Amino acid sequence: MEAYTDFAKVYDEFMDETPYHDWAAYIARLISGYGISVPYRKKTEEAVEENNEQDDQQDDPLLQERNLVVELGCGTGSFTEEMAKLGYDMIGIDNSGDMLGIARNKMEQAGLDIMYLEQDMCELDLFCTAGTIVSVCDSINYLIEDEQIRKAFTKVNNYLYPGGLFLFDFNTLHKYRDVIGDVTIAENRDDCSFIWENFFDVDTNINEYDLTLFVKKEAGKTSGKKDKIVESSEELFERSIETHLQRGYTLDEMKAFIEQAGMIFITAIDADTHEEPNDNSERIYVLAREHGKDLNIK
Fold first, then answer.
1. Which domain holds residue 80?
2. 20 to 30 A Cα–Cα from 146, which one of 120, 224, 236, 275?
3. Together in a domain, 282 and 188
4. Model-level pTM?
5. Shared-domain flag, residues 34 and 163
6. Which are the contacts of 223, defined by CB distance < 8 A and separation ≥ 6?
7. pLDDT at 229 over 60
8. Phi/psi zone of residue 71: left (φ > 0), alpha (ψ -120 to 50 degrees), beta?
9. pLDDT at position 132
């Protein structure tokens, strides 16, 4: 079964403790420190002069591109929305239509303005450049072949504004091999449960997730007779199975992929400690810069 189909329906429930807000706040600081994009929608009271200047900038097409932030592997849009609330002009990209459907519904309910596109990140196709391209929550690890990751990174460099920032995280080989490999995780909620079985292959560095879902069905189901609805007081759960493949990488491998794509490596940060990565780092932020375009664009 294709990944993130049935799981999309309950993804947010199982990820309800994920600190998207904190992630967004930290990544916004990294963009401010290393990138060229700035938020133009202010959520706090600002000086009138600054707001007027921002309004003028929105009319400049090149500044619009420089300040655009694109998220690869946005899923149901939880992180995308946090970045939008910080004032960034956001585009969310994912290859799961089921996940994007949920993201669009959430966006409408929140009253936000986000463009969502259904695309494979290896086939990234934007209508303009973007000052920042981000990817979080180990989306990059779903690229399990060297050629896939080189192709995706090359697309990123192609669509980055001159001097733009590529910021992504990835789960390390250490995490899959030594921490979660061959471990089974189970969780039970009122309306859904899952069993998540990991199998790590030491020859390919690929971790296979076999995900078994049990999702509570809504009351009132057809009995099989035409136009007849049978209300049942019994709790019925529908079972489905998905298989996910992710590959563990080392930081040295990621640096090589960045260079092969034509970008310049800036720095790497342990995503948990915000310090320099080490052999025990499980998730790492990588920052890289666009290279090869005309840097004299104003």
1. 16-172+248-289
2. 275
3. no
4. 0.85
5. yes
6. 229, 230
7. no
8. beta
9. 98
Look up residue 243 and give its amino acid: T
Query: Which contiguous run of DSSP H or E holds residue 229?
Result: strand 229-230
Which one of 212, 230, 246 terminates a domain? 246
CATH of residue 107 = 3.40.50.150
- Per cent of the chain over pLDDT 90 is 65
Using CA atoms, how far apart are residues 85 and 41, in angstroms rounded to an integer? Answer: 8
Query: Which residue blocks in the chain are alpha helix, DSSP H?
Result: 6-14, 20-34, 48-57, 61-66, 78-85, 97-110, 146-159, 173-174, 251-260
- 3-class DSSP state of 27: helix
Q: What is the β-pairing status of strands 283-289 and 264-270?
A: antiparallel
Confidence check: pLDDT of 193 > 80:
yes
The span from the CA of 137 to the CA of 92, in Å, is 14
Residue 2 within a domain: no
In a domain, 213, yes or no: yes
